Amino acid sequence: MLSHTGLTSEEVKDRLKRFGYNELKRTKKRSAWKIFISQFTSPLTLILIAVAILSFVLGYFPGQDSNLTDTILILVIVVISGIAGFIQDYKSEKTIEALQKMAVPKAKVIRDGTEQEVLMTEIVPGDVVLLDAGDVVPADAKLIDSYDLKVDESILTGESRAVHKNVDDDVYMNTHVVSGNAVAVVLKTGMKTKIGEIASKLQQIEDQKTPFDKEIDVFSKKVSLMIIGITVVILLVGLIKYNWYTSLLTAVSLAVAAIPEGLPAVIVLTLASAAKTMSKKNALIRKLNVTESLGSVNVICTDKTGTITEGKMKVRDFYFDKVYNLDEIRNVDEFTFKITNTILNFCNDAKSVFKEDKNVLIGDETDVAFKQYSEDKPVFDFHRTKEIPFSSKRKMMSVLGKIDDVQYILTKGAPEVVIERCDFYLKEGKVFPISKEIKQRILEQNKAFAQEGKRVLALAYKDNIGFSGVSNLENLEHSLVFVGLVSLNDPPRPEVKKAIEECKNAGIRVIMITGDNPDTALAIAKEVGIESHAALVGTEIDKLSDFELEEKLKTINVFARVDPMHKLRLLEILQRQGNIVAMTGDGVNDSLALKKADVGIAMGIKGTDVAKEASDMILLDDNFATITVAIKEGRRVFDNIRKFVNYLFVCNFAEVGVLFLATLFLTLKEPVLLPVHLLWINLLTDGLPALALGVDPPVKDIMKRPPRKINEPIINKQLMTLIFSIGTKKMLLLFLTFFIILRFGLPRARTALFTGFILYEFVRIASIRAQEKLNFFSNKLVVLSLVFSLLLQLFVIYSPLNRLLDVVPLGIFEWGILIIGTLVGYMLAIFITRIVVKYIPD
Question: What pLDDT does residue 89 have?
């Protein structure tokens, strides 16, 4: 190995200056300042800021009181909403940076003619690196010396099987050496490597707005235009009846009434709360608005290796005279059981090393699987002395040693090769001559296992051998006794089948897109319940037009031997068809599609840094089943957003209506409700129950209904009808209440109207619960928030604070009118809700 002298220290310094450090760089970073400013760009937020400034300016009109309280209340809610969004986004940025600052692995190199260990980031082109089993390849390199090297390239290709590498073959940065050793000369480092090129292309892709972002933008613009329109109309009407100051104050009051001030904060805090809940269930949300978008997903494009499957090979079946699964194997005779375990354990080059504070097995994935299976099983006391190594040409491996002073040879290998070396076979612990018919039966079973997407090896042995003086040990590999076949595969995670069934029930299509071979992909798909007419491979995709591929997508849910460009093409076609697509993956090969997907989901344990940076959500447990938990949470979030939009907008509609009617039909010197009253209602008393609604539990059938359509708005026809009808009812009842009590003076009437809005919160919650067929007390936080709101209102009315808010204590008569109005409102709200739900579908 040390025949290669490598670079000198001076050459390394020079090349570090020329080529830079061997690391993946983030070219797109958002500063904390930019993240913070971006929180205040929505139309609703901008209108709120404008209203706050206007309210402040009005306080400086000649002879007018300061409106500083109103201004501060408006700006406080804007800032709270902004800070909540900023914290979540800033955490995401810091998470990415933390991933890059994690402990940097080291690599073995030859420099100045000696073997050295250096940080991977200090590797330069021209470095001679030494690779052993368990190492991470530090850069793109060409092999100049190799001994039985196998490399796991699944992070690039998705292929679960290790690739055998020979001299002059290339190895790639961040892939893993499974077995063997090699010497390689570095060709490319950092962003010039294959993984770096993908990372660079990934950073060039513009961040896409989530479906929820787009919907909130449209929703906010519509509400903003409506608010501006109503405010202008009221201002013009006011100018006819009042002076400039009163007209502007009325217009500002109406703008405050129309704007759901609590909505931005409630949405952000609801999403943040859901994100926190998801993190406890192993789904880390990197982009807050994706929380709701998950609930709209109707297609999941998932990788196979490490996502649907466990990402490691395991023993699945045995064949002796018949097929035995792992539970049935103990039913075979003792000798067959023990010799099988002995071959698996000792005809094996996997070794245990202490790594990251624990013992781990390293080596070829098949050897590791055999060692893991057999280490707790009964074996013969075998003393290994020699090895006839595996090679791609021989396709078999043997070891020599003793069991109770008897010389044995233990063999494993490709069934078609091993079977030709066998003259005998083992049956019920006894040895019999093997016939052509039995050999044919064994090969047919080998074919059956292979068609199930399993890897198959044959096991054999021979005893009483003498190998002293034998120059070529391969000559001993004849007249063997065939023991059996053993099948392996990368098995599905136990919980995945149930998760995919839940996806089906929820109207979500699951598509497997993998770099693995089609037979294995189809076998795993069938095992977990992904139905597919066939498996389409990458070379076939290349020959199809987009229209032809769309036709194939109607019946095919398994795509194999695909590269990143195939994944992107499939994703873009699905999105053009109007689907909300989630893409899961852990490798670099997944990152481009993760970035372009509506929801990109990376694996937290096996996922590469590139994949994590491209994602919207990270599965901390690499568990596909966690996705269904996240989708359920996303659907719950949307349901709850719709609830508090319903709740808040009915109140806003009634406020605008009361102010509008008072402006048109009453001749008062000032608005019936001042901006401070409306802010108190919208932020403190309406805001608390709205926040509580944001954490409502999911309804029972939430995962048994189809996903929300891509063009379905937050306020659909049913919700619009409810807001209008119940809002009109509330407006008329409250205006009537105000009009009845007005004869006792404006202060009492205003206080009664002010308090009426608070009492009607109970009516709104009752009608929302009736709509959902839920118990009024199904969410204790909502009930507590309502009670707290009422107590706050009583405190304001009957404490010195009443002067600050321009209200007066209410008497028995006023309370009597309010309670009667609330009861009438409750009965009418329940009646209206039942009629609307019955005749207007959701």
Answer: 64
DSSP collapsed to 3 states, 36-79: HHHHHCCHHHHHHHHHHHHHHHHCCCCCCCCCHHHHHHHHHHHH
Largest CA distance in the chain: 122
pLDDT at site 563: 77
Active-site residue flag, 303: yes
More confident residue, 407 or 37: 407
pLDDT at 169: 93
Which residue pairs, CB below 8 angstroms and at least 24 apart, start in 460-464?
A: 460/343, 460/410, 460/411, 460/412, 460/418, 460/421, 460/422, 461/339, 461/343, 461/408, 461/409, 461/410, 461/411, 462/408, 462/409, 462/411, 463/403, 463/406, 463/407, 463/408, 464/406, 464/407
Quick one: tokens of 54?
Answer: 């206007």
Residue pLDDT, tens place only, 446-461: 999 988 888 999 999 9
DSSP assignment of 509-576 equals EEEEE-SS-HHHHHHHHHHHT---S-EEEHHHHHTS-HHHHHHHTTT--EEES--HHHHHHHHHHHHH
Beta bridge partners of 314: 489
- Residue located via tokens 């016939």: 435
**Which pLDDT belongs to residue 526?**
92
User: Does pTM surpass 0.70?
Assistant: yes
C-beta of residue 501 within 8 angstroms of C-beta of residue 290: no
How confident is the model at residue 556, as a pLDDT?
95
pLDDT digits (tens, 9 = 90+) for 686-696: 677 888 888 88
Where residue 646 falls (left for φ over 0; alpha for ψ -120 to 50; beta otherwise) is alpha
How many angstroms separate the CA atoms of 520 and 509, rounded? 20
The pLDDT value recorded for residue 185 is 95
Task: Judge whether 459 and 344 are in contact, CB under 8 Å.
Answer: yes
| More confident of the two residues 90 and 412 | 412
Long-range residue pairs from 61-66, CB within 8 A, at least 24 positions apart, any chain? 61/245, 64/245
The predicted model gives 197-203 an average pLDDT of 71
The tokens for 498 are: 């149930």
Instruction: Give pLDDT tens digits for 295-348.
Output: 889 999 988 877 888 888 999 999 998 999 998 998 899 999 999 999 999 999
Nearest alpha carbon to residue 162 among 490, 633, 650: 490
pLDDT of residue 99: 44
Residues 6+ apart with CB under 8 A from 606: 306, 311, 586, 622
Q: What CA–CA distance (Å, rounded) separates 722 from 836?
A: 7
Q: Are 177 and 133 in contact (CB under 8 A)?
A: yes
Dist CA 333 CA 315 (whole Å): 19
* φ and ψ of 490, to 5 deg: -85, 100
Predicted pLDDT at 324: 95
Q: In this model, does residue 466 exceed pLDDT 90?
A: no
What is d(CA 43, CA 71) in angstroms, rounded to the nearest whole number? 18
Cα–Cα–Cα angle for 805, 809, 812, rounded to 5 degrees = 145
Beta-carbon count within 10 A of 770 CB: 17
Kindly report the three-state secondary structure assignment for every residue of 256-295. HHHCCCHHHHHHHHHHHHHHHHHHHCCEEECCCCHHHHHH
Tokens of 635: 């659907």
Please state the length of the chain.
842
d(CA 628, CA 605): 18
Q: What pLDDT is stored for residue 93 in this prediction?
A: 59
**What whole-number distance in Å separates Cα of residue 208 and Cα of residue 600?**
11
Sign for the CA dihedral angle at 487, 490, 494, 495 comes to: negative
Query: Helices 211-241 and 43-58 sit at what angle, rounded to 10 degrees?
Result: 30
Confidence of residue 380 (pLDDT cuts 50, 70, 90): very high
Which residues neighbour 179 within 8 Å (Cβ) at sequence distance 6 or greater?
133, 148, 149, 150, 162, 349, 362, 363, 364, 367
Which of the residues 70, 135, 303, 586 is marked catalytic?
Answer: 303
